[in-house]
């Protein structure tokens, strides 16, 4: 059924709690035997904890993980998805829950303040969502495997809902057995990629200036192996994207695989894959994909079972004209079922969260890695609350 929007009143007088780093309380965290990068700091990032219904906010300051003021923040309902958007001042955080989508303003120190008088700005229950300019796009499945995308109009300066209270612009696609896993927008703002489990992946055109920015037709990308499942999507971070990525189970034999496609081939109607694609992702379940800002390496978070430590794999991506090649990389251990990846705004760390915690006695669900020519070194391991927290997503403030 069509979701409806709640037209709440934005409170301009909300107080932003901008904290001072000197007064933040550090969570328990440990190094991993390597050299802690005591000279490196990060931007603000947030972890969504489903089991404890919390947002945990952090920053790394001179190699030490510190909580932002007020963290962790209790959520009004069980969360599923998170999206962060920059804005004048600091930005906005949207959290999709089983009760709708909630808006938080971000203070200059990363502190969060619940907006819209504490009411959801939409009653949508998103499986994934993102922000593009004056649109908050979310996606979910209806009965009968119908995949629905909604484009919720927002004020890009205040973050508030700007619609009249009726249904937002939407598009619905009938995809057999679809289950939304992830969604991403290409850096050129032209295409939405949605991983749909055994339903494969769809690509939906996006035009921000249209009254309904969502295209009415979708390109369907079938699975590499009919027994597989599309779990993750990502796009090369270049303004003119070179490639896009899909992570699927059973894409390379019985193992997870990373599929790498030429982005420009979308327009031709005949998709072409990079040399070496699909390539074994390093585990059974490629749950998240992160092409770093430089564009020369891509990272994949792999699950290897419900009780086994997963890993983060990295692969070099090279170009010769318009021909791209993905080569075998290396892996580093992570927590159980790593589910989310992010690069901090300073490009110093690859951040990972694991929904199953860790296999070690010092339990952790957050890990920060430093990068050197693609290779990762574990620098910080920490819990993000009282375990089990059920971390399901991570987002870094741009």
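Sequence proposed for the structure above (398 residues):
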């Amino acid at each position: 059924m069509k979701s409806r929007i709640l037209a709440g009143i934005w409170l301009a007088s909300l107080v932003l709690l901008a904290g001072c780093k000197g007064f933040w309380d550090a969570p328990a965290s440990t190094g991993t035997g390597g050299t802690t990068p005591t000279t490196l700091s990060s931007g603000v990032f947030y972890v969504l904890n489903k089991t404890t219904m919390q947002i945990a906010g952090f920053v790394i300051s001179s190699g030490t993980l510190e909580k932002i003021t007020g963290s962790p923040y209790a959520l009004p309902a069980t969360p599923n998805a998170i999206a962060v958007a920059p804005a004048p001042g600091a930005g906005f955080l949207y959290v999709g829950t089983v009760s709708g989508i909630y808006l938080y303003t971000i203070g200059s120190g990363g502190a969060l303040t619940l907006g819209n008088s504490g009411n959801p700005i939409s009653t949508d229950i998103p499986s994934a969502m993102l922000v593009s300019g004056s649109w908050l796009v979310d996606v979910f499945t209806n009965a009968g495997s119908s995949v629905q995308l909604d484009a919720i109009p927002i004020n890009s300066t205040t973050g508030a809902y700007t619609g009249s209270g009726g249904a937002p612009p939407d598009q619905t696609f009938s995809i057999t057995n679809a289950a939304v896993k992830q969604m991403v927008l290409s850096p050129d703002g032209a295409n939405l990629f949605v991983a749909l489990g055994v339903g494969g992946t769809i690509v939906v055109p996006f035009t921000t200036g249209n009254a309904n920015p969502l295209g009415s037709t979708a390109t369907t990308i079938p699975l590499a192996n009919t027994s597989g499942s599309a779990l993750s999507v990502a796009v090369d971070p270049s303004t003119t994207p070179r490639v896009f990525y899909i992570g699927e189970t059973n894409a390379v034999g019985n193992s997870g695989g990373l599929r790498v496609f030429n982005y420009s081939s979308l327009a031709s109607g005949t998709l072409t894959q990079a040399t070496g694609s699909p390539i074994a992702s390093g585990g059974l379940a490629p749950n998240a994909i992160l092409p770093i800002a430089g564009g020369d390496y891509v990272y994949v978070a792999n699950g290897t079972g419900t009780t086994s430590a997963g890993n983060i794999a990295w692969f070099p991506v090279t170009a010769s004209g318009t021909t791209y090649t993905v080569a075998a990389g290396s892996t580093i251990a992570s927590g159980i079922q790593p589910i989310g990846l992010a690069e901090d705004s300073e490009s110093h760390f690859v951040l990972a969260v694991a929904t199953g915690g860790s296999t070690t006695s010092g339990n952790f669900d957050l890990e920060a890695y430093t990068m050197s020519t693609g290779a990762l070194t574990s620098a910080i391991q920490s819990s993000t609350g009282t375990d089990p927290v059920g971390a399901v997503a991570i987002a870094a403030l741009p």
